[in-house]
Amino acid sequence: MEVAPSNTDLGSDRKPQVIYRCKKCRRIVASEEHVVPHKRGEGQKCFRWKKRSDELEHPPECSSIFVEPMKWMQVVEEGCIEDKLQCIGCKARLGSFNWAGMQCNCGAWINPAFQLHKSRLDECRS
């Protein structure tokens, strides 16, 4: 006789879902499934000479997340090639996008790029 797993057993194997919220109005703007992962760049040597700083040791931790285009991104729907991304609730600037791509602060290039700054988001685990 086989015993069916209980509801408490089913949820224990899953890791918590990460949700990103606007820091100003707390509206959900993305979840972990919308994040586009990227391979860390080689840090400062990936940037043009004038954009480099004196720190040549370790690539910094990424200060942004890159996501897929989503319905709340109104300027994307309007057909713009590049622009700022604003929260649909409070109009706070959350990041920017560029269909031609952008460079992350770790040095990696992401094409197309829909960048949300971590400093403008709250990362919540559910």
Automatic annotation (TrEMBL):
Similarity-based family: Belongs to the protein-tyrosine phosphatase family. Non-receptor class dual specificity subfamily.
Protein name stated in the entry: Inactive dual specificity protein phosphatase-like
Organism: Forsythia ovata
